[in-house]
Specification:
By secondary structure, the protein is of the alpha+beta class. Helices cover 38% and strands 29% of the residues. Strands 2-1-5-6-7-4-3 form a seven-stranded antiparallel beta sheet, with helices on both faces. One of its GO terms (molecular function) is coenzyme F420 binding.
């Protein structure tokens, strides 16, 4: 029930602003607990902690993200809550596709691939089935095509 309510609220502009603050807490708790404590999962969505290498700093950067599975792969989307700019983690993956995923208390090395063309439409359907507000975020994104990545385990 909580999941249905949160998914309905996900379309509201105020929700995105509030959720950005919750994501900071979620990231901190996931890092400290090595993925055992994931508050966002209480909303009925699946999340992972993606760690990329900062394209400018060269330092590890972690971001909790909603995901769907496509076979063995993890599919993530850089919606940035519908803001006009891409989230930094997507630029990090374009610069260096090597990353790691923390999921279910396990850290998995992975590589990222930007999804394009026909596969993009199919995976966007999977993502919006999990989090319907992605369609709203695309409308808000001021014409920017939201990036979708396939994360493959190494």
């Amino acid at each position: 029930m909580l999941g249905r309510i949160v998914k309905r609220l996900g379309h509201r502009p105020w929700f995105a602003a509030a959720a950005r603050r919750v994501v900071r807490l979620d990231r901190w708790l996931q890092r400290r607990s090595k993925g055992r404590i994931v508050p966002i999962n209480a909303a009925g969505v699946n999340t992972l902690l993606l760690t990329t290498t900062g394209r400018k700093s060269g330092l590890p950067r972690s971001q909790p993200l909603l995901f769907v599975r496509d076979g063995e792969d993890f599919i993530v989307i850089g919606s940035n809550w519908g803001q006009a700019h891409h989230p930094a983690w997507t630029a990090n993956l374009l610069a260096d596709p090597r990353c790691s995923i923390t999921w279910r208390s396990r850290e998995l090395p992975a590589t990222a691939e930007l999804v394009r063309d026909g596969e993009r439409a199919r995976l966007l359907e999977l993502l919006t089935a999990s989090w319907p507000a992605y369609r709203t975020y695309q409308e808000r994104a001021a014409g920017r095509e939201i990036r979708i990545f396939r994360l493959r385990g190494i």
